[in-house]
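The pair is set out directly below:
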Amino acid sequence: MNLKRTIELLRQFKKTHPTANKADIEGEFIARCRPKKERSVFVGEGFALRFCEANTLSFSNVVLSLSALQKYDSLPVVICIVRPDRLDFRLANATFLRRISHSSHKLRIDNIRGSFLGHDIMEQYEGVANLPEHFDEIFAIHSEFTWEDNVERLVEATNAIVARSTRFEVPGDVLKRLLEAPARAAAALTTVAFQEAERQLSSRIKEHRDELLRAAILDNVNIRGNTIEQIITGEGNAHRLDDLVFDLAAGGQLIIDIKTKLLDRASAPKAYNIDKMLCLLAQPGNVFSLFFIGLDGAHQSVHTRLVSIFDPIILNATRIQTHWAGRGSRGVTQLTGDLGHIFAPDYCPTVDIEAGQALLRLFVER
């Protein structure tokens, strides 16, 4: 039984058995779903479930250790909060934790310690309520971040340590070059280098079509992304913005970051680290673009498109994840919404210079 049906089942059971407590709800779940139990966590059909009880409005119980969460974090980790009059459900994957609260004074990136409490789970993420009707949407966002990304953030939030300085400083002369970046991107669209880069990359995708479609069915988003990057570049994963670089005739470089979009399921690709992107565009002549690979496993099709980060569709989909803006960083961006239009055969990439400059100013002022 999948997660959606499981939640409906448990809610209906509570409705017909108003006095049911945690043990009763848990018993019904075991009887109807036959899950695998690993200590306090039940593993169902593509999700992990932990039952907790709260008899007041607050929810301050110890929920789970961080080390236990690590084992299931690639699945939706759902907390069922059994209250006297209802059941509440929250996603408790690492992305949706504010900090680690319990016995966590020794928590470090290389020392996973401590547990999180109920009130450490976010009620909403970037304005989206942490409720079952939004689980698919916010889990797709979570899937784009690694466990290491989250642990680093949680260490900083929990221990109030001084973050590594990753903020790119932007004096006046640098700001001028940055604001010229959208115009450079627009000019690059018609260059031989841009067209040749798209031709080479698209040709490489055709050669490895079957491998890419096999990689698309991998559940773990990080393994999937790494596998696809290795297929395309023929190298190990650099995890940098500049997956591929082409020289431009007018000077500077065309910097290309590879992004995968699953067309037959929800996905919200992580776009770029804002400070790293600003650093690249501050160099004279540089142009930063995204090479999208649209994988449709249901129809066994692969689509590609090379676009600027200042393309109107990309600009409209770009969201700043303030959740990831640590003390020394402006944060990261993520692409949400429908990107399918860029794969249309008649789509012609463009650049919105004015909107691109507005976005750059917004980044600099953060």
